[in-house]
Design goal:
This protein is α+β, with helices and mostly antiparallel strands. The protein has helices at 33-44, 57-60, 64-70, 83-88, 104-110, 114-122, 144-153, 157-161, 164-175; strands spanning 12-13, 31-32, 138-142, 178-179, 198-204, 211-219, 222-226, 231-241, 244-249. It has 9 helices and 9 strands. The strands form 2 sheets. The protein has a 7-stranded mixed sheet. Strands 1-2 form a two-stranded antiparallel sheet.
Length: 261
């Protein structure tokens, strides 16, 4: 009996870092399983006369990326996973020893996001375990300048570390930068961050309340995230981690009820 298998639509496909060297670059650019599949379909049916077959001409002109957008997960249609569920659902075959599959914490450090990594470490007891291999989570990570500005507005590292109230405030803000996957889906990657999408986060305005959301905007190929109190542009996309991703922002996002002085 034949058995057919293919990866999830959002699965990122790229050359393993341990298979790349300065004198041996990747032969192909990173993509996702869905984009690759749709691109192949587009080539296969390039000569198909959509109008003659009774289909709308517009449907035949959609690009592979546009088709990916049509199939994106929608936060209004599916329940999100809780922080506890994400941790419990970490990949059971990820041993954490393979250098090709860094944890989210290690990926943040490797990307030079030192201020973001410090903030996540300072609030680690209130957030999903970023050092766990296989944690399905997408982090929206403000760059070092943005994070330094945020930490300074809270009084600096020493003040945050010495105050439970300030640590709690920072934890609430950092949870707004953690986007769990929707049930039955992989971690969010950039092909699904299309304008109008609402992303559930780990933040709650009240204990036990609904997830606070980010709204995706943008245009001209760019991605903008709008929060309750601020917005930011995505400057680097899909930094790979084991089962997760990091996207770098040029500013921090303020959740509901967390205004800064």
């Amino acid at each position: 009996m034949p058995f057919f298998f293919e990866p999830s639509f959002a699965t990122r496909v790229e050359c393993l870092p341990c298979c790349v060297a300065p004198d041996r670059p990747p032969r192909y650019a990173p993509t996702t399983a869905g984009e690759h599949l749709l691109a192949k379909y587009a080539v296969t049916h390039a000569g198909y006369d959509a109008t003659r077959k009774g289909r709308a001409a517009a449907a035949g002109s959609r690009s592979p990326r546009a088709m990916v957008a049509l199939g994106r997960p929608n936060g209004r249609d599916r329940a999100r996973l809780s922080a506890g569920s994400c941790a419990a659902g970490a990949c059971q075959i990820s041993c954490g020893r393979c250098p090709c599959c860094p944890t989210l914490a290690a990926a943040a450090e490797a990307a030079g996001l030192t201020e973001f990594a410090w903030a996540m470490n300072a609030t680690a007891d209130r957030l999903p375990p970023l050092s766990s291999p296989g944690l399905a989570l997408t982090l929206m990570a403000p760059d070092n300048n943005a994070m330094a500005s945020l930490i300074n507005k809270l009084g600096g590292r020493a003040a945050v570390a010495g105050s439970a109230a300030l640590t709690g405030k920072l934890a609430a803000i950092m949870s707004y930068h953690a986007v769990p996957p929707l049930e039955g889906y992989e971690a969010w990657s950039s092909p699904f961050l299309v304008p109008g999408t609402r992303l559930p986060t780990e933040h709650r305005a009240a204990p036990g309340g609904p997830a606070s959301t980010l709204t995706v905007g943008g245009g001209g190929g760019g991605i903008k995230l709008a929060g309750a109190g601020s917005s930011a542009d995505v400057t680097r996309r899909d930094i790979y981690a084991c089962k997760g991703y990091l996207n770098v922002l040029n500013w921090y996002l303020l959740p509901p009820g967390e205004a800064l002085e």
